[in-house]
Amino acid sequence: MTLSANPSRISMPEPGSAAGNGGEAGTPMIQVEQLSKIYGGGFQALKEVSLTIRRGEIFALLGPNGAGKTTLISVICGLVNATSGSVRVDGFDNVAHYREARERIGLVPQELTNEAFTTVWDTVSFSRGLFGKPKDPAHIENVLRALTLWDKRDNRLLELSGGMKRRVLIAKALSHNPQVLFLDEPTAGVDVELRREMWEVVRGLRDQGVTIILTTHYIEEAEEMADRIGVIRRGELVLVEEKAALMQQLGRKELTLHLAVPLEAVPAALSGHDLVLADEGHALVYTYDVSRQDEGTGIAGLLADLEATGIRVKDLHTRQSSLEEIFVNLVRESA
């Protein structure tokens, strides 16, 4: 992978450079099979997790604190040993062929662990050397330019803001030309403007074929960026779904009816509809499942009943539930 000075433009190496059984056409980038992890004290952090990550996608892994997100990433990256199950990276088993699997991975940890007195240039260059890669100043320069770090290349890390330190972690992860990039809470501590700039960098990587797996507490980050979303809770994958399909299947819509004359209560004649009085009686809110549209939303019947009761509506609008609401509902239902 070679980054250009334009963070939205990244060129990948020619295909066919992978050795062994990796890189074959149609091979998933990450293949996790029945993965479990039990720590020494008996705590089971992962419970028979199976997951396929496709090449070139952005996959967002959501879950509350302690759900197993970081443990799953650590096992895939070879930093933690699994109790049972297997992981393949670009076709390589991450135990039997550890070196081949690991060199394909770039990992951006959640914690800021940079060496305080090292310069940006030196720490990124050193990370490349850890993977046995030859020096490539042009690549390091392009990485730093892509992440808006070029002007900071001679600064010591202790002189940088939290957001810039986060960018340095990403630069280190990209220093050895990985094919898959893990981002564990990538924009934690980053202001909104820098966060959106970093989203553009990540999209640019994805557009050029890099597979991105991110964990995040920012629901809007997953909603904005991800192609697919996985929800993990108590070490189990609750759901893996295309983002659009998730919104379609699990989302709920609200129809808000603004009334010409306020009501004190929902009339008994409308008790058969899922209605809630809002805005001090000036609005009725009707909720329905998007996934049941083939059975009818019930809106036509609701409007007919409103007319029959003499309730006049002066305006109406609909609202799709957000990914955050869907996520909260999923976690609640799995409790």
Automatic annotation (TrEMBL):
Transmembrane segments: none annotated. Keywords: ATP-binding, Nucleotide-binding, Transport. Residues 1-25 are annotated as: Disordered. Residues 30-259 form the ABC transporter domain. One of its GO terms (molecular function) is ATP binding. It comes from the Bacteria. The keyword Transport applies. InterPro entries: AAA+_ATPase, ABC_transporter-like_ATP-bd, ABC_transporter-like_CS, ABC_transporter_ATP-binding, P-loop_NTPase. This is ABC transporter ATP-binding protein.
